[in-house]
Amino acid sequence: MADRTTAGSQGKAGGDKSQGSGGESLGDPGVRGRTTIADSVAEKIVGVVTRDVPGVHSLGSGMARTMGGMRDRVAGGRPSVTRGVQVEVGEKQAAVDLDVVVDYGAPIPDVVADVRTSVISAMDRMTGLEVVEVNVTVDDVDLPGDDENDDDKSDDRVS
């Protein structure tokens, strides 16, 4: 887990200053201390934002989707927000890797551009981290009625 450190200068001229017990200026309270953002927090943000992009059917590679689907069907199981998402968080920057499944007919370059824009905007707004890269791997295309067709094929082949 990496962290993001917020540091500021003390005693800015013309600013609102607080005085410590020794008369020294403490500076802006917003810059005192250290803020650490866990990788898992960034992954949740990226996962939620990516799923909201039109044209994105789901996240995760084939095996991750299969295992996640089985986990989701177990009583009490919930879909994982971070499936198909990996984020490395540094002190001031983050790098994002995504595995996505795109809806059939959606223009993949446009969907991926929208994903990048949404991820960068959300991460900047919510964490203040600069996203240096958003690597997107399109693992599959979701065909409409694909699950229903599989059931029909198996019925037709059995006599």
Brief descriptors of the model:
4-stranded mixed beta sheet, 159 residues, 4 strands
Structure write-up:
This protein has about 160 residues and is of the alpha+beta class. The protein has four helices and four strands. The chain has helices spanning about 40-50, 60-75, 110-125, 145-155, and strands at about 55-60, 85-90, 95-105, 130-140. Strands 1, 2, 3 and 4 form a four-stranded mixed sheet that branches. The protein is elongated.
SSE sequence, one letter per element:
HEHEEHEH
> What is the number of helical segments per DSSP (H or I, 4+ residues)?
4
Percentage of residues in DSSP E strands? 15-25%
The residue fraction in helices comes out at 25-40%
Instruction: Report the mean per-residue pLDDT as an integer.
Output: 78
Poorly predicted regions are 6-18, 148-155
What coarse outline follows from CA principal-axis ratios?
elongated
Derived structural class: alpha+beta
The gyration radius over C-alpha positions equals 22 Å
Number of strands: 4
User: How many strands, what sense, and barrel or not for the largest sheet?
Assistant: 4 strands, mixed
Distance between the termini: 56 Å
